[in-house]
Design brief:
single chain; mainly beta; six-stranded mixed β-sheet; globular
């Protein structure tokens, strides 16, 4: 059974940083791409970033490019999202989506419970 457990969210002031983690189990982690998707209050899902398996090609939404960094540790079955220069518009619940099996639109039907990120002074 696929399980995804996000952690690392919290309340941070504008300009601050957080590091999110997503611990995965139930599939061969190293064989699949992993994504982060967020949902701001009252809005729909927004894809944030993706890291491929293998050579680990990386992609970012324009809204986070240059501020967020995705990475993975295949030995720990964990994907990370380092978020710097956080702004109030980054406030959202952040979800891990995996394993990427090409399911439209984000790659997987599996989701974690999410971790809340609130950026406020």
């Amino acid at each position: 059974e696929v399980q995804l457990v996000e952690s690392g969210g919290g309340l941070v002031q504008p300009g601050g940083s957080l590091r999110l983690s997503c611990a995965a189990s139930g599939f061969t982690f190293s064989s699949y791409s992993m994504s982060w998707v967020r949902q701001a209050p009252g809005k729909g899902l927004e894809w944030v970033s993706k890291i491929n398996n293998g050579r680990g090609s990386i992609y970012y939404a324009d809204s986070v490019k240059g501020r967020f960094t995705i990475s993975r540790d295949n030995a720990k079955n964990t994907v990370y999202l380092q978020m710097n220069s956080l702004q109030p518009e980054d406030t959202a619940v952040y979800y891990c989506n995996a394993p990427d099996r090409g399911v439209i639109p984000y790659g997987s039907d599996y989701w974690g419970r999410g971790t809340q990120v609130t950026v406020s002074s």
